[in-house]
Amino acid sequence: MNEKEIEKILKALANRRRIVIVNLLRKRRVVSVGDIAREIKLSFNATSKHLKVLFSADIVDKNQVGLTMFYRISEQMPKAARH
């Protein structure tokens, strides 16, 4: 893993809301965007943006079922993000 990849991971986790999202996904395994937004008391759009950052850093995976997008912790989560 190079410095640029580590920086991307650290930036993704350098936000309180995103840390809350990761902790929620660790507890509940698979959660829809709407349920995450309600749980953390944030708008659907803002929650989606945070999830996009986490997805781009390979911290979460997503799966669409119908019109609903579900997220979970990535099995390929980089080692730098595991703790």
Keywords:
18% strand, single chain, 3 strands, alpha+beta, 4 helices, 54% helix
Give the helix/strand class. alpha+beta
Q: What is the overall number of helices?
A: 4
Query: Which whole number gives the mean pLDDT?
Result: 93
**H and E order:** HHEHHEE
Helix content: 40-55%
Radius of gyration: 12 Å
Q: What separation lies between the terminal Cα atoms? A: 16 Å
* Overall strand count: 3
* Strand line-up in the sheet with most strands: 1-3-2
Lay out the secondary structure.
Elements: H1 3-13, H2 16-28, E1 30-32, H3 33-40, H4 44-56, E2 60-65, E3 68-73
Antiparallel strand pairs: 1-3, 2-3
Helix pairs in contact: 3-4
Written description of the protein model:
The protein starts with a helix and ends in a 10-residue tail after the last strand. A hairpin with a 2-residue loop joins strand 2 and strand 3. It has 83 residues and is α+β, with helices and mostly antiparallel strands. The mean pLDDT is 93. Helices cover 54% and strands 18% of the residues.
Write a compact overview of the structure shown:
This protein is α+β, with helices and mostly antiparallel strands and 83 residues long. It has 4 helices and 3 strands; from the N terminus they run ααβααββ.
